[in-house]
Amino acid sequence: MRYNDIYFIGIGGIGMSAIARYYKFKGMAVSGYDRTPSDLTHALEAEGIPVHYEDDPGRIPTDARRTLVVYTPAVPADLAELCYVREHGYRVIKRSQMLGEITAGQTCLAVAGTHGKTTTSTLVAHILTEGGAGCSAFLGGISKNYGTNMLMSHTPTVVVEADEFDRSFHQLHPAIAAITAMDADHLDIYGDLAHVQEAFRIFASQVSETLILKYGLPIRREDTPAKIFTYHFDDPRADFHSKNLRLDATGHYTYDLAYPGGVLSDIRVGALGWVNVENSIAAAAICLCYGLDAQKVRHAVGTFEGARRRLDLHIGTPTLTYIDDYAHHPAELESAISSIRQIYPGRKITGIFQPHLYTRTRDFASEFARALSGLDKLILLDIYPAREEPIPGVTSEIIFRDVTAPEKVLLQRDELMSYLEKEPVDVLVTLGAGNIDRFIDPITEMLNQRL
Question: Best label site of 149, 156, 200, 328, fewest CB within 10 Å?
Fold first, then answer.
């Protein structure tokens, strides 16, 4: 049956909004609900997609037989709109199932991993687009090159960020895939690291042609029918790795890529930091295995501007720098902080971190404290709850007490701007996956006034 309407519950999510844009492009009537307005929902509205912010079943299209409802598991199970559509005969599917249906029958290139997947998948999409092969793409962040999280092409190749949350990536059957990391995360879903790794092995078993693994990950050849290649930042045992790495005065790296086809010299990475060297190696590996010309890969990596909120430079001067990053897992924080430290040696790095989720804070408090101790000064905010209810005894204090950075302060979110107004800044970085992004423009404006 052809649907007239597609209705999204949680339309403002990064993955949901990409699918909404896809169906709007396809000519469907698209609308949806989200809890709070955001830059993404405003962009959707500007593109002609109605969005409302009250949990009101009366706003749902009334023809249940002709309306497909897509929801994200991030919304509460007792949300009135979700309960209504389940009780009134609508077809209701998760975002991940919808993405699986869209990619079926196309050549799917997927990037999975507990961190690194957004930038890597965004770079794969950019390389294919810039290199002329073309692709559609469903991304977990906003590409700075294109200003969107969804690219459309008539080429039957689709690039997807394969999300492990709620086992969403099990809906995908890629031809080529990369796995960037398999750290413990989402333990509210998986329980422990062993179950996280098992979920990635299931994903690996669904890759049909080529699987590109970060060197050392616990995936065996018998776990997948695909041919396996490995990649690493600089380990020569990996099939794809960097050689002759050099850093310029602007924070950009250039390297030579050693790969099974030879050496691709002088790749300048358009995005900042060593972590993006590693992401670019994974992306280049996917595109080379896909069959793209090596020189086109080299050129496109150099024109890549990055993804928003991934080592995202807002102010960059010799005396005042402001970077924003989405890091919300200890391994991501370590990568971001060490990347910034290498770019700006000898400068004082102040980090503002907003923990994301009570469960993640509880499960990784000591790891967060260790990662954040790499800063010269930590400003730690209260926990962003997202979909969760508070857990007794779980506050930012359980991270804060074990941080060994030379300076640290614990603040409520509404205290931050007044505190920063009196604070000298050399290199400032905001970190986190909650609503800390609402501070980017006010902080940028305030710091620009100091220049």
Answer: 156
